[in-house]
Amino acid sequence: MNLAGFSTAMDGVAWRGLLYSVFILHFVFACQLLLLQPLVSALDGKPGSATELFERVSQSIKVKRYSEALDDLNAAVEADPTLSEAYFRRASVLRQLCRYEESEKSYKNFLELKPGNSAAEKELSQLHQAQSALDTAWTLFDSGDFTKSVEYVDKVVLVFSPACLRAKLLKVKLLLAERDYSSAIFESGLLLKEDEDNLEALLLRGRAYYYLADHDVAIRHFQKGLRLDPEHSELKKAYFGLKNLLKKSKSAEDNVNKGKLRLAVEDFKGALALDPNHFAHNVHLHLALCKVLVQLGRGKDAITSCDEALNIDGELIDALVQRGEAKLLTENWEGAVEDLKSAAQRSPQDMNIREALMRAEKALKMSQRKDWYKILGVSKTSSMFEIKRAYKKLALQWHPDKNVENREEAEAQFREIAAAYEVLSNEEKRTKYDRGEDIEDMGMGAGGGGFHQNFGGGGQQYTFTFEGGFPGGGFGGGFPGGFEFQF
């Protein structure tokens, strides 16, 4: 090849390289135009393209992609610091997210470009209201005024800042504090739909299920949160606290089944001490503890436990029954009848309750009759000889002629002593009395009928004759009116 041919070839390569470089530059430029067309168009004053930009921002906000909307708006402002609408839109998004300081700055940027704009001034005022309301809501939450705090969140903060995560989490905390667990589950569920890995929402929703005693679901929420952050202190505390509660509760139940009632009492008390506010679970612990204490004969302690259960759930029939049994142990017959009658009315088909009520009514009836053993000062196991001896002693002690100064009291005491002796000296009557059966004629205090008793001993003879009571009067001389006393 000669020198001229070589030169021609080289020129061709150079031209092709130059053309190739020009093609690459045009391709890159075309891509930039394609990607940045809305921004460039807005900067060039082409309203149609600016409209497309803001339409895209609106769509992002509609599907709650606030980060994408802010990215577009930030890019627009960076490309053209005089694009007022971008400042306004960005301020609005930031306000909805309750990023108040950034939002206020964007509103002020807009107002510098559009002084006196009423819409911007109105939204800036709303921003200040929402910001103040959120601060107030937290203060009320800390002070324990949960109802008022919820009002500030619902009626102000979430009206002007509907995408405010801090306010939504605070609302769930307030619902938990007010024990509205179903609403807390619903609200936290909405948060998890937006972000399924939100640790705070997982924790709060788990707590709501926990306080409803839906422990399996609560554990799943805590576990998911701990998988995302194994060192999250609140999630760890909630998870291991629940595991400990379940362990202690099961230990108590196992000891009951094994007949180790005293150990069960300690386990139940230990489980109750772990979380006194866990009412949905504690109501069953209090009831189970009451049953065990009744079995142990600790009536007073059992009443306290059943009271706790009924304070949580006043319609708990089993707690009424157990408290009735506990009151029988403490000889509170009226209280026992009241509790068992209430339980029987609520569960009329339960024969066990009806049997318990009959026992209580019988005990009440027996408690209201006179205690003849007590009147004679003898025990229920006393022999007939001991009963007669006590009777002789009391009859002489309360002889009306020996109690001239307190004759009326002596006559009353003497009647009681005679009536007691009439029942307890008769084997048939005594047996019926001990069984709690009615006795039509129980001596002087039971409606009349005659009574005559002679017995002697020690060189003395005593004769007591009762016929129809002591009609009309006193014990003068030979005790007129059918009463005779000789010695």
Large-scale geometry:
elongated
Residue share in helix: over 70%
In CATH terms, what is the architecture of one domain?
Orthogonal Bundle
Instruction: Write the element-wise H/E pattern from the N-terminal end onward.
Output: HHHHHHHHHHHHHHHHHHHHHHEEE
Q: How large is the count of helical segments?
A: 22
Q: How many β-strand stretches?
A: 3
> Roughly what fraction of the amino acids lie in strands?
under 5%
CATH topology of one domain: Helix Hairpins
Strand order of the largest sheet: 1-2-3
Poorly predicted spans: 1-10, 25-48, 441-487
Structural class: mainly alpha
GO cellular component, one term: endoplasmic reticulum lumen
Main location: endoplasmic reticulum
Organism: Betula luminifera
Keywords: Endoplasmic reticulum, Membrane, Repeat, Signal, TPR repeat, Transmembrane, Transmembrane helix
Write a concise keyword list for the protein shown above:
single chain, about 475 residues, disordered N terminus, about 75% helix
Can you characterise this structure?
It is found in: Endoplasmic reticulum lumen. Its main location: endoplasmic reticulum. This protein has 487 residues and is mainly α. Among the domains are: 93 residues, Serine Threonine Protein Phosphatase 5, Tetratricopeptide repeat; 115 residues, DnaJ domain (Helix Hairpins). It contains 22 helices and three strands. It has a three-stranded antiparallel beta sheet with strand order 1-2-3, with no helix packed on it. Strand 1 and strand 2 form a beta hairpin. 33% of the residues are buried. The N terminus and C terminus are likely disordered.
